[in-house]
Specification:
Number of helices: 4
Distance between the termini: 56 Å
Structural class: alpha+beta
Shape: globular
Order of helices and strands: EEEEEEHEHEEHEEEH
Helix content: 25-40%
Number of strands: 12
C-alpha cells in the first residue's frame, strides 16, 4: 500500500479499508519470545508496520535504596521511540508523549504483577519502538506482557492490548496509520486476560468523539481482537518453553553419551 502524506479522499472504499481489511480484522502480527540473552525476559513483536522489542530485568535490587518499598516491588516502565523509527528523524530522548505512555503503561502492569511477592525490589520493563506505525503503545504493551512471562514474573493474568478507531463514520479494529491520522477517533484498550477470559480493563484512553452506541461497539470489537492477540501471545510463550525443553533434553543426552 502506498504511503499518504495528505488525507485520502476516503478511508473506506467499497466496504473495505485502504489495506483491504474488513472492519473487524487485525493487522498481521508476529510475536517471538526470548530474543535477548542478557535480559531476564524479552520479546520481539510486529503489529502491522510496528516493530518493537521489549526487555524485562528483575526482580532485582533497587538503586538508589531510598526508592525501595518494604512491602512490594516497584514497577518501572520505559517506552522509547528510536530516532529512526519514524519518517522524519525523531529527536533522541524522552518527550511528553513517551513519558505519558510510560506512565499509563506502568499503571496497567502494576494492577497485574504480584508486586507483594518481591519487597524492596524493582522490576524494570524497557520497550523500544524500532519502526513506528499506528498503535505503537498497544504493540509495546503486548510485547512487554510476553517478556514478563518469559522472565518468570508472577502475574494475575496477561495484559493484551489493541486499539479501536473511527474512520469515515465506521468503527474499525486496530487502526492503521491513515485511519489514526485522519479518522474521527482513536481508543486504545488493554485488558487483563486470565484463562482465556477477559477479567477487566487495565488501560483505556480516547482521542476524538464517539456516541454512546459507538463506544459500546468499540468495546465489543476490542474484546474480540484482544482475545485473538491473546492466543498469539500464548503460542509465542509455549513455543519458547518447548524450545527450552528440547535444549535441556539435548544437554541431558550429551551428558549420558559422555
Amino acid at each position: 500500500m502506498s504511503e499518504y502524506n495528505e488525507k485520502p479522499e476516503k478511508l473506506i472504499v467499497d466496504g473495505l479499508r485502504l489495506d483491504g481489511r474488513k472492519f473487524d480484522e487485525l493487522r498481521p502480527i508476529k510475536i517471538e519470545a526470548n530474543v535477548l540473552k542478557r535480559a531476564d525476559g524479552s520479546c520481539y513483536l510486529e503489529m502491522g508496520k510496528n516493530k518493537v522489542i521489549a526487555a524485562v530485568y528483575g526482580p532485582r535490587e533497587v538503586h538508589p535504596r531510598h526508592l525501595q518499598d518494604p512491602s512490594k516491588a516497584i514497577i518501572r516502565y520505559r517506552y522509547n521511540m528510536a530516532p529512526f523509527s519514524v519518517e522524519e528523524r525523531k529527536r533522541p530522548g524522552p518527550d511528553r508523549r513517551s513519558i505519558e505512555i510510560s506512565k499509563v503503561s506502568k499503571e496497567a502492569f502494576e494492577a497485574v504483577i504480584m508486586k507483594e511477592l518481591f519487597p524492596r525490589s524493582a522490576i524494570d520493563i524497557f520497550v523500544e519502538v524500532l519502526q513506528a506505525d499506528a498503535g505503537s503503545r498497544t504493540a509495546c504493551l503486548n510485547a512487554a506482557s510476553v517478556a514478563l512471562v518469559d522472565a518468570g514474573v508472577p502475574m494475575k493474568g496477561i495484559i493484551t492490548s489493541v486499539a479501536v478507531g473511527k474512520a469515515d463514520g465506521q468503527i474499525v479494529l486496530d487502526p492503521m496509520k491513515e485511519e489514526d491520522n485522519f479518522g474521527e477517533a482513536d481508543m486504545p484498550f488493554a485488558f487483563l486476560i486470565r484463562n482465556g477470559k477477559i477479567e477487566s480493563i487495565a488501560l483505556l484512553q480516547m482521542d476524538g468523539c464517539m456516541t454512546k452506541e459507538e463506544v459500546k461497539r468499540a468495546v465489543e470489537l476490542a474484546k474480540k481482537g484482544a482475545l485473538k492477540i491473546y492466543e498469539m501471545q500464548k503460542e509465542a510463550i509455549l513455543k519458547r518453553y518447548l524450545e527450552a525443553g528440547e535444549e535441556m533434553d539435548e544437554i541431558a543426552e550429551g551428558r549420558e553419551d559422555a
